[in-house]
Design a protein that fits this description.
Helix content: 10-25%
Order of helices and strands: HEEEEEEEEEEE
Shape: elongated
Structural class: mainly beta
Radius of gyration: 35 Å
Number of helices: 1
């Protein structure tokens, strides 16, 4: 009889353990996760704009090696994005100058402006797009090669600006 009582007690204990959950849910709570995503842009120019000396009789224009241009924009889907370039003045070597209007370019790549002429008074369009994305192209600068230029090492600063309205 002792054995039967112990067997019944063990069975009852096993039923209690198996039929009750291992834990009891006491409460739940929720929290909201947020992320701030601001409009951003980045321009990457790879290469250099160098014009080697050449004979104006043989080459009335000089092309620089292509410049790789990447414009990255994180904007609203319908927002316009524009890339411009403006010269800081004319080419200068000491007191000698080459008019900045003698510098022009051509581009390749979706949304890039096909051609343009440099200005030091007005930013010139290089490309335009709608919405966010990475826009890649190349820009090849061309300089008029004139007999009237004084010998020297000329330079000018070109400022690229990426904007959205």
């Amino acid at each position: 009889m002792k054995k039967a009582v112990w067997s019944a007690a063990a069975a009852l204990a096993l039923m209690c353990v198996c039929s009750t959950p291992a834990y009891a849910q006491l409460d739940t709570e929720q929290i909201t996760a947020t992320a701030v995503v601001a409009a951003r842009g980045r321009i990457t120019l790879t290469g250099a704009v160098n014009f080697p000396d050449t004979d104006p009789f043989l080459s009335p224009t000089i092309n620089a090696a292509p410049l790789a241009v990447q414009a990255l924009a994180r904007v609203a889907p319908g927002a316009g994005v524009s890339l411009t370039v403006q010269a800081g003045g004319n080419f200068v070597s000491g007191t000698d100058t080459i008019a900045i209007g003698n510098l022009s370019w051509s581009t390749t790549g979706g949304g890039f402006t096909a051609t343009g002429t440099m200005s030091d008074t007005t930013a010139q369009p290089v490309g335009g797009w709608t919405g966010p994305g990475a826009h890649n192209g190349s820009q090849t600068y061309t300089l008029v090669n004139d007999w009237a230029y004084a010998p020297g090492n000329y330079s000018v600063t070109l400022t690229y600006t990426l904007t959205t309205p």
